[in-house]
Design goal:
Length: about 150
């Protein structure tokens, strides 16, 4: 399977640039596409925006909680259990998904919704899997204890 240690520094740099681009790309595309706000259901717009903004808050608070431990590619340097990480193991990934879904529903973007379900969600599941695998390998029971005390 995928082995981060076997990547060259150029491959790691490429992935460090590619992965965030995959989150930004649909936002830019949807910005320029015609909008069908709330898919024609106006009362859906505020709820969608709340979901998107909540996702953004979770995303940003996860990044802030990680501080210097923040990395694009999964590494197992330390167990971070402060901030939002006290409750959720992968707040950045969850925040990214909710941000995209909320904004794309608010904009009425079928492209954005499809992109989120076909690329963003599977990518984040894969990233979380790699992260968990690295953390269990390095920290064993310490990570198991943290894992069992948090959600997703």
């Amino acid at each position: 399977m995928f082995n981060l240690k076997s990547l060259t520094s150029n491959q790691k740099l490429f992935l460090d640039l590619l992965i965030p681009s995959l989150y930004l790309l649909p936002l830019l595309i949807v910005f320029f596409l015609p909008k069908n706000f709330g898919f024609g259901i106006e009362r859906l717009i505020p709820y969608s925006l709340v979901i998107g903004m909540a996702g953004l808050a979770i995303w940003v608070s996860g990044m802030a909680s990680l501080g210097k431990a923040l990395r694009v590619l999964p590494e197992a340097n330390s167990i971070v259990a402060r901030g939002v990480y006290r409750f959720i193991r992968h707040p950045i990934y969850i925040g990214i998904i909710f941000t995209h879904l909320g904004l794309f529903f608010a904009c009425g973007s079928a492209f954005g919704i499809i992109y989120t379900f076909t690329l963003i969600i599977p990518l984040n599941i894969f990233r979380a899997y790699l992260e968990e695998k690295a953390m269990f390998a390095k920290f064993g029971e310490r990570y198991r204890s943290y894992h069992d005390s948090t959600w997703l």
